Structure formats: structure tokens, C-alpha cells
């Protein structure tokens, strides 16, 4: 099985070997010594983003892709350039290129980019056949963003994301109403596998009692889930230190979600973003409408004096890459998402907003995407208990002219 993860410094030597194969295969002039320094520099300073494909059994790196953030001189839209994509010859034909491209697409969405762009030569026959199949379209305005003399340029408009959430208590998936009255919803590992097959774009794993019980997120369960899936995976619950995040990323998480610890120590957001990169850091807000939208912590059990709008602004300013916004008033009610506070966040913030709480039917997803302009929608019980099938939901969204990955 193949897992796509961000490259780290310890991967550099093996990546350099792949770059040598890349140079030989494509007959490109690449200075390996300079490439080594380039990789170290990019991994440490995050000026570009490198994702690698790892074959889990052997832990061998079998492919890589590089992304460069870039702003067009003639447009204000943020775009990402997909520059190098390579799969070890011995592992081709296993869908690894598609997995790497999907990971790039989801990462670009996390950065709130509007387009993913790649350039290619006529001689890249396999690639030119592959790219339209995975969502790219030929850009007729050749070299619009380019600094190279490519033959073709492809672009991909980024899509809305559907994210099942696994709320975990005592090692099993649970779901309740308004954050209470929890009932079992199944084995998290098996649910995760099913969501991959159904076409979920990402998964969120929240150990909902980790904070109040003063214990760490269940690392062994994170490891099991991560090994069972090949889509981005966010983990939250009981995270309060750099060491916690490092352990979770090493266990297989792609991103982490912090909540109570960020409210208690807002500097933690800055520290984690600096240490691991904004693409890894999600800040969750559990919010409840009282005199205005207020912030709650400890799994929704404890009120704070924070107002949600002010806190959301501070979260962005401190360097979080994404906000997971859950309305406690709507959670589990199946009466629809909190359109007003979600709309406020998407209008006043530039980082992606994941709307959560209240999904009950397919139209609720249309509303949160079209009216509130959420970047992603998260739900639990309607997916866990089969009330909404993800393929059916995505077809419905397509029919309503909302771009999603099919």
C-alpha cells in the first residue's frame, strides 16, 4: 500500500537517488550536488513543498512531487505550480501519480489557492494522457504563468471538499446531539476504509475526551487508521506541545487540529506553524450562539469569554492554515449548517473554513457551499449510519454546479 506524506529532512538522501533516476529518465540536466542542497533548503525553509510516495511495507520512497507557491503578475489569484512529478519505474502502473496529484490538489485547497498548474513537454506522452483524467484541463493561454519553454500547460480549478469526521471515545467512533448523548457509530479503522472507497476527500479524527481526561490522543489508533487510508488525515484531541504534534505526524497524521490548548496558550499556534508549516495546523472552534457567537473548550463543556469572530481573526493572524468551525447549536440536529457564522468567516478571513455541525440532507451541503462559501463541509452521523452516501452527495453537488472530486 502507498502512503503520501510531506517529505522531511531524513528523506533527503533517498530523494536524491530518485532525482538521479528522474534526470536519467527525462534526460534533464540536474546537478545532483546542488539538488541535495536544494532539497535540504526547501524542506527546512518550506519555500516549496515536496510530497513523497512511500510503500508502507518496505518504507521505500517510490515517487515524489514538488509544488511551488506563486502569484501571477497579471492576476491576484494564488496559484501553485506542480513542477516535478516522478514515480520509480519499478512501481509504475499502480496509480501512484494519481495519488500524488490528488495530495497536491488537497494541499492547494488547504492553502486557499484557486488553481493548480503544471507544464509539460510533447514527449511526455503518458503524462499528457494522465492529466486530463485526474481533473486537469489544457490551458489555451500557453505560458500564462510560466518561466519555462514548455509545450503544454494544464490547469485545475480547485474543488470543494467532503470530510467525514470520526469522533473517538474509548477507541470507538461515537456521535451525539449538541455534543452530548453519545452513541456508538462503529469501528474507526473500518469506517475510515469505507470512506476512502466512497471518495471522501479527507478524514478528521477527533479524540473528543482526550482533553478533559488529561491524556494524550490514542497514538496506536492513529497509526492503524493512517495505515488503512491514502487520503489526508487530520487528528485532534489533547494536543498541547510540539512533541505531541511530532508524535502524531510520525504516527501517520497529515495535519493536527488544536482547540482548547490554543485558547489557553494562543502562542502555541505561532510555535506550531513555525515548526511544522501552516499546512499542518488546523485550529478548531467550538462555537455557540448566545448574545453573540461564543467560544467553548474541553469538548464543548466549558464556556470562555472569547467571541468567535475575534478569535477567528486572531487564529489567522497567528499563522494557522485552516479553521474547523463547529456550531454547537447545530451539531447532530440535522437541521443544516450554521450559515451565518460560516459566511462571516469565509467573507472576513482568507484561510480555508471547514463548516461542521448540522448536516442532515444533501441540500444542506449545497447551501453551505453556495451561500456560506465554505471551503469544505464536515459531517459524521449522516455518513456513519448511511443516511447520505458520499458518491450520491457528490453527484448532487455536481448537478448543482459545485465543483467536487468524483
Walkthrough of the structure:
It contains 14 helices and 19 strands. By secondary structure, it is of the alpha/beta class. It has 2 domains: about 1-155, Aminopeptidase (3-Layer(aba) Sandwich); about 160-400, Aldolase class I (TIM Barrel). An 8-stranded parallel barrel has the order 8-11-12-13-14-17-18-19, surrounded by 6 helices. A 7-stranded mixed β-sheet has the order 1-2-3-4-5-7-6, with helices on both faces. The radius of gyration is 21 Å and the shape is globular. About 45% of the residues are buried. The model is unreliable at about 70-75 and about 175-185 (pLDDT under 50).
List keywords for this structure.
single chain, 406 residues, alpha/beta, Aminopeptidase, TIM Barrel, 2 domains, 8-stranded parallel barrel, 7-stranded mixed beta sheet, 14 helices, globular
The share of residues in extended strands comes to 25-35%
User: What's the CATH first level of the largest domain?
Assistant: Alpha Beta
Helical residues, percent? 25-40%
Distance from N terminus to C terminus (CA atoms, Å) equals 22 Å
Q: Counting H and I runs of at least 4 residues, what is the number of helices?
A: 14
Mean pLDDT: 83
Q: Please, how many domains?
A: 2
CATH architecture of the largest domain: Alpha-Beta Barrel
The CATH superfamily name of the largest domain is Aldolase class I
The CATH topology label of the largest domain is TIM Barrel
Uncertain residue ranges: 72-77, 176-183
Radius of gyration, taken over Cα atoms and rounded to an integer in Å: 21 Å
Tell me the total number of β-strands: 19
Write out the strand line-up for the largest beta sheet, numbering strands in chain order.
Answer: 8-11-12-13-14-17-18-19
Amino acid at each position: 500500500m502507498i502512503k503520501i506524506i510531506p517529505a522531511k529532512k531524513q528523506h533527503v538522501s533517498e530523494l536524491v537517488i530518485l532525482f538521479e533516476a528522474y534526470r536519467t529518465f527525462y534526460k534533464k540536466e540536474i546537478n545532483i550536488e546542488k539538488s541535495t542542497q536544494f532539497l535540504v533548503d526547501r524542506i527546512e525553509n518550506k519555500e516549496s513543498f515536496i510530497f513523497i510516495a512511500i510503500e508502507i511495507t518496505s518504507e521505500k520512497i517510490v515517487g515524489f512531487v514538488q509544488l511551488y507557491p506563486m502569484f501571477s503578475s497579471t492576476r491576484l489569484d494564488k496559484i501553485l505550480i506542480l513542477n516535478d512529478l516522478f514515480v520509480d519505474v519499478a512501481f509504475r502502473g499502480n496509480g501512484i501519480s494519481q495519488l500524488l496529484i490528488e495530495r497536491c490538489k488537497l494541499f492547494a485547497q488547504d492553502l486557499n489557492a484557486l488553481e493548480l498548474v503544471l507544464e509539460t513537454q510533447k514527449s511526455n506522452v503518458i503524462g499528457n494522457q494522465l492529466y486530463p483524467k485526474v481533473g486537469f484541463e489544457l490551458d489555451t493561454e500557453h505560458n500564462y504563468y510560466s518561466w519555462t519553454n514548455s509545450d503544454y500547460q494544464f490547469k485545475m480549478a480547485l474543488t470543494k471538499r467532503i470530510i467525514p469526521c470520526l469522533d473517538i471515545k474509548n477507541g470507538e467512533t461515537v456521535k451525539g446531539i449538541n455534543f452530548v448523548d453519545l452513541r456508538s457509530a462503529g469501528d474507526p479503522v473500518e469506517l475510515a476504509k469505507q470512506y476512502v472507497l466512497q471518495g471522501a476527500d479527507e478524514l478528521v479524527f477527533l479524540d473528543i475526551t482526550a482533553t478533559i481526561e488529561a491524556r494524550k490522543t490514542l497514538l496506536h489508533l492513529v497509526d492503524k487508521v493512517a495505515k488503512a487510508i491514502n487520503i489526508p488525515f487530520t487528528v485532534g484531541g489533547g494536543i498541547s506541545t510540539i512533541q505531541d504534534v511530532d508524535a502524531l505526524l510520525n504516527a501517520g497524521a497529515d495535519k493536527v487540529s488544536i482547540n482548547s490548548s490554543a485558547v489557553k496558550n494562543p502562542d502555541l499556534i505561532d510555535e506550531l506553524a513555525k515548526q511544522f508549516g501552516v499546512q499542518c495546523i488546523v485550529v478548531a472552534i467550538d462555537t455557540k450562539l448566545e448574545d453573540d457567537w461564543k467560544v467553548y473548550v474541553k469538548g464543548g463543556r466549558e464556556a470562555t469569554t472569547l467571541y468567535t469572530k475575534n478569535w477567528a481573526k486572531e487564529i489567522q493572524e497567528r499563522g494557522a492554515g485552516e479553521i474547523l468551525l463547529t456550531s454547537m447549536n447545530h451539531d447532530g440536529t440535522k437541521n443544516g449548517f450554521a450559515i451565518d457564522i460560516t459566511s462571516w468567516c469565509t467573507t472576513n478571513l482568507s484561510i480555508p473554513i471547514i463548516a461542521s455541525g448540522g448536516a442532515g440532507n444533501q441540500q444542506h451541503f449545497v447551501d453551505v457551499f453556495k451561500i456560506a462559501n465554505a471551503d469544505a463541509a464536515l459531517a459524521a452521523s449522516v455518513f456513519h449510519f448511511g443516511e447520505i452516501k458520499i458518491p450520491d452527495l457528490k453527484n448532487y453537488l455536481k448537478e448543482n454546479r459545485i465543483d467536487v472530486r468524483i
